[in-house]
Amino acid sequence: MSEFAALADPPYYAVIFTAQRTDVDEGYAAMAEKMAELALAHPGCLGMETIRNDKGFGITVSYWKTEADILEWKSDAKHLVAQQMGKSAWYEHYILRVARVDRQYDGPEGR
């Protein structure tokens, strides 16, 4: 996966998942990889960017065409299992934010 998601022109939506991991690793890496694959294959998903530091703090931003696409992904059966595992074992704390992206710039040339 590229570091930067290749996205179409706005508007679109960003789902920003910020989390602090627990010390429990059992199955996490495999599940995270599978969820990324499934999300990227899900209708309406435009791309994803993710980063995690060595202390278990991470941010994943997924980009979506519509809010309806986000809600469909949230209720996906396999994603529901991953959400439950995250709550019960893998995350000490998390915050999920949904935002509409109306503008984007990139650079350093600033187009």
Describe the protein's architecture and organization.
The protein is of the alpha+beta class. It has a single domain, classed as Alpha-Beta Plaits, CATH 3.30.70. It is 32% helix and 33% strand. The protein contains three helices and four strands, in the order E-H-E-E-H-H-E. The chain has a four-stranded antiparallel β-sheet with strand order 2-3-1-4. Strand 2 and strand 3 form a beta hairpin. It starts with 11 loop residues before the first strand and ends in a 10-residue tail after the last strand.
Helix-strand category? alpha+beta
Biggest β-sheet strands, sense, barrel: 4 strands, antiparallel
Tell the overall outline: globular
Give the number of helices.
3
Helices and strands, in order, run as EHEEHHE
Briefly note the CATH topology name: Alpha-Beta Plaits
Q: What order do the strands of the largest sheet run in, or round the barrel if closed?
A: 2-3-1-4
The level-1 CATH class: Alpha Beta
Number of domains: 1
Q: Mean of the pLDDT scores?
A: 93
Query: Which CATH architecture is right?
Result: 2-Layer Sandwich
Question: Whole-Å distance between the termini?
Answer: 23 Å
Strand content: 25-35%
Number of strands: 4
Low-confidence stretches: none
Cα Rg: 14 Å
Question: Helical proportion?
Answer: 25-40%
